Amino acid sequence: MSELDESIGQVESLIPKQQIPGQGQRRSSNRSALLIILLIVGIFVIVNQWRALFGPNQTVLDADAEALLMVVDAALQSQQVETGQLPQGLPGLAADQWVTFESVDGGYRLTTRVNGTFKQLERRGDRSSLDSVEQAELDDA
């Protein structure tokens, strides 16, 4: 070995070894990519779980209430066909916790509450109507 090679070796041993150029930038870009992926996954989870987190919207609740009233009405109509008489109340249904029954001239009225408003199904003979009503209207009836 020449004197020059020995001098270069001594100088290299005194200088701390540096990182390979660009290695720090690669780690930084990997972290950025990971953060972006986590952000996208988080947004996806929130969007898909919106109903579970914040509950269904009013339109869904209204549709569910109307479906409940129609199922109870169908059960009452079935009872009327079997007995030949107008029902005097809800037949052994679990729905009596959510639906009130009221006899009216020539028929009945079913009512359920949805977020402060009420849905009513009124049946008189073969005709039925489904409406939303306010508490004041119920108090007047």
What does this structure look like?
The protein has 141 residues and is of the alpha+beta class. It has 2 domains: 18-55; 58-140, no CATH class. It is built from 5 helices and 4 strands; from the N terminus they run ααααββββα. It has helices at 3-14, 23-48, 50-54, 58-83, 135-140, and strands at residues 100-104, 107-114, 117-124, 127-133. A 4-stranded antiparallel beta sheet has the order 1-2-3-4. It is rod-shaped.
Explain briefly what this protein structure is.
Helix content is 53%, strand content 20%. The longest helix is centred in the N-terminal third of the chain and has 26 residues, at 23-48.
Properties at a glance:
single chain, 141 residues, alpha+beta, 4-stranded antiparallel β-sheet
Write the layout of secondary structure elements.
Blueprint: H1 3-14, H2 23-48, H3 50-54, H4 58-83, E1 100-104, E2 107-114, E3 117-124, E4 127-133, H5 135-140
Antiparallel strand pairs: 1-2, 2-3, 3-4
Strands of the widest sheet, in order across it, are: 1-2-3-4
Gyration radius (Cα, Å) is 36 Å
State the end-to-end CA separation: 112 Å
Counted up, domains total 2
Strand content: 15-25%
